[in-house]
Design goal:
13 strands; GlmU-like; single chain; 9-stranded mixed beta sheet; 5 helices; Spore Coat Polysaccharide Biosynthesis Protein SpsA, Chain A; about 220 residues; alpha/beta
Length: about 220
């Protein structure tokens, strides 16, 4: 399976840190956020990666190169202007190929073992959900019996980690657009499964949360 790391966001809430450094290269636990993802994917046996970028994207390519230093192969999907989550994935589909692929938001951190994620035949997406954090108390989607619904209870927050089938993007056209409407449409057709991750998860949306993650990583063994 190939994986895509979404790294094109501007990171406005992280300013001034992101004025001169792209958000994925901000450091926590002694290494850039995006390298945490790369290391975890490599450990899971996922070696073919696609990374999109926009704001200060050249810095990401310079820092990571072709991925050989991390034991992976990286291909880049450059965006002049960030295309949002849906548009960014759609643009990268030629690099991702015809099979289901894993996508991870570059601005989250989780100890989720992606080797346990599976996309069943007929499903278009499999999402990892987490308990609602304090900054997002109402959640995103409902989870019942391993199926995800746009409405209902209990509600959980989308972690930014999921497996998608290219067919999820059928009918899309190039440009900027969000992923959520595509997921809700697939949910209405009963074609989205999911699981609840009960381990550690961080949405690194502010300098304060970045500092909190840095403190955590300084205390735990990441191996």
């Amino acid at each position: 399976m190939k994986a895509m790391i979404l790294a094109a966001g501007r990171g406005n809430r992280m300013r001034p840190l992101t004025d001169h450094t792209p958000k994925p290269l901000l450091v926590a636990g002694g290494k850039p956020l995006i390298v945490h993802h790369i290391d975890r994917l490599a450990a899971a046996g996922i070696r073919e990666l696609v990374i999109n970028h926009a704001h200060l994207g050249a810095q990401i390519e310079t820092a990571l190169g072709d991925g050989a230093a991390f034991g992976v192969r990286i291909r880049y999907s450059a965006e002049n202007e960030a295309l949002e989550t849906g548009g960014g994935i759609f643009r990268a589909l030629p690099l991702l190929g015809p099979d289901p692929f894993l996508v991870i938001n570059g601005d989250v951190w989780a100890d989720c073992d992606v080797r346990g994620l599976q996309l069943a035949d007929g499903d278009l997406a499999h999402l990892v959900l987490v308990d609602n954090p304090a900054h997002h108390p109402t959640g995103d989607f409902a989870l019942e019996g391993g199926r995800i619904h746009a409405d209902g209870t209990p509600r959980y927050t989308f972690s930014g980690i999921g497996i998608y089938r290219p067919a999820l993007f059928d009918g899309c056209t190039p440009g900027a657009f969000p992923l959520a409407p595509l997921l809700r449409h697939a949910m209405s057709a009963g074609r989205v499964s999911g699981r609840l991750h009960t381990g550690r998860w961080f949405d690194i949306g502010t300098p304060e949360r970045l500092a909190e993650l840095d403190r955590l990583l300084s205390r735990i063994d990441l191996k």
